[in-house]
């Protein structure tokens, strides 16, 4: 102990002590920014170890101070985003108001259908050429006033094909939907066709629909599956997927996951183990084939870019995976929320920002090849966040609660015939 009275005699030891303290402090400063995606454990994985792990992933400690100064800027961006949303809402309200007024005008026109039909008979072919919009209005008036009688009144208008069709069509609705409709049965068929087209937009539709004549494209709804369904599945993700690989109890799926993985470096990091070697995910997808590929990324990117730029990059990644694995069904997993406590105190890692990005991610799904699934439906409480008892750091799940995630996956399989 006497030797420590003269610390100047041991410069290397003093340098080691001071550098350790500095790195530890920087680690705590960046725990909600640079190191938000890393697991911290007082005994197994202390903050200093997280700093060195971050350096390995090129997340350097001095970024912590830089990220702190950017919080105000991110907050200002978020405020501007809210203002834009409000402006958009006002604009939409104005459009709806104008639409309502136009609808009222259309009702007024319908009440004067009889006089309009008489005017139609007097209209010459030259007048119709000069005023196409008037032509369309007259066609609607002819249909609405009873079809056959008004079509006869407009028989003199030889250039109007629509008037002739209106004469043949007994059902006014059928005359609008189909030029060749000659009876109510044809009209019904046209309406059924429109309903079929609307059903194509349903996310959970499993019936095949025709997007083009002669081309069938199937959409599917989620189905309950067994654990064996995941034997040919691949899970790609960050620290949360690392947890899934360790605590799900599922050994059959393949996991290409890393605590610091992001949508921006997904094909650059060597995180895939194939034949005992660490290679990039892109290289691995060229060597192995999978039937289902699950991707959960986004929590590490919360402070980078906007929801729009993030989703644009995500779309590129999904497109590349489709090319590398043409036979695979791809699942875009929503970013898992954080606790309400974390959300209420963090300007970046909060559930409002996560929800915005998830809404953009949902648009990547076509329910044919790419599907969007949101585990937040099963894992969050009525506050919209993960219950605090489920997590040890307000972000990552405790081992026992990964069963909620796996149960959700078992209820959201896609079985293609």
Automatic annotation (TrEMBL):
Gene3D superfamilies: SGNH hydrolase. It comes from the Bacteria. One of its GO terms (molecular function) is hydrolase activity. Residues 77-218 are annotated as: Disordered. Pfam families: Lipase_GDSL_2. Residues 235-402 form the SGNH hydrolase-type esterase domain. Keywords: Hydrolase. Residues 98-110, 116-130, 149-218 have a biased composition (Basic and acidic residues). InterPro entries: SGNH_hydro (IPR013830), SGNH_hydro_sf (IPR036514). This is GDSL-like Lipase/Acylhydrolase family protein.
């Amino acid at each position: 102990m006497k030797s420590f009275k003269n610390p100047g005699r041991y410069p290397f030891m003093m340098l080691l002590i001071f550098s350790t303290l500095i790195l530890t402090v920087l680690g705590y400063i960046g725990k909600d920014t640079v190191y938000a995606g890393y697991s911290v454990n007082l005994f197994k994985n202390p903050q200093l170890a997280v700093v060195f792990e971050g350096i390995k992933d090129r997340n350097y400690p001095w970024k912590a101070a830089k990220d702190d100064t950017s919080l105000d800027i991110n907050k200002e961006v978020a405020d501007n985003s809210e203002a834009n949303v409000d402006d958009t809402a006002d604009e939409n309200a104005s459009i709806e108001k104008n639409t309502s007024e136009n609808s009222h005008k259309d009702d007024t026109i319908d009440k004067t259908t009889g006089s309009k039909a008489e005017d139609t008979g007097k209209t010459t072919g030259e007048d119709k050429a000069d005023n196409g919009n008037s032509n369309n209005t007259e066609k609607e008036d002819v249909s609405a006033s009873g079809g056959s009688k008004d079509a006869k009144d407009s028989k003199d208008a030889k250039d109007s094909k629509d008037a002739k069709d209106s004469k043949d069509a007994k059902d006014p609705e059928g005359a609008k939907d189909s030029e060749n409709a000659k009876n109510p049965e044809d009209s019904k068929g046209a309406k059924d066709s429109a309903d079929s087209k609307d059903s194509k937009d349903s996310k959970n539709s499993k019936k095949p629909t025709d997007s083009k004549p002669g081309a069938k494209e199937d959409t599917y709804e989620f189905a309950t599956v067994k654990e064996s369904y995941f034997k040919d599945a691949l899970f790609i993700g960050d620290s949360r997927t690392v947890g899934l690989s360790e605590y799900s109890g599922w050994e059959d799926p393949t996991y290409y996951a890393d605590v610091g993985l992001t949508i921006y470096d997904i094909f650059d990091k060597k995180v895939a183990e194939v034949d005992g070697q660490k290679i990039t995910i892109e290289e691995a997808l060229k060597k192995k084939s999978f039937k289902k590929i699950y991707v959960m990324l986004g929590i590490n990117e919360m402070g980078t870019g906007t929801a729009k730029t993030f989703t644009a990059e995500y779309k590129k990644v999904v497109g590349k995976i489709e090319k590398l694995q043409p036979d695979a069904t791809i699942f875009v997993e929503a970013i898992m929320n954080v606790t309400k406590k974390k959300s209420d105190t963090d300007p970046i890692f909060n559930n409002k920002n996560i929800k915005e990005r998830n809404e953009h991610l949902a648009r990547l799904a076509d329910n044919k090849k790419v599907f969007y699934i949101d585990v937040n439906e099963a894992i969050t409480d009525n506050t919209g966040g993960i219950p605090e008892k489920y997590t040890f750091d307000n972000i990552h799940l405790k081992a026992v609660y990964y069963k909620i995630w796996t149960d959700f996956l078992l209820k959201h399989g896609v079985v293609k015939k």
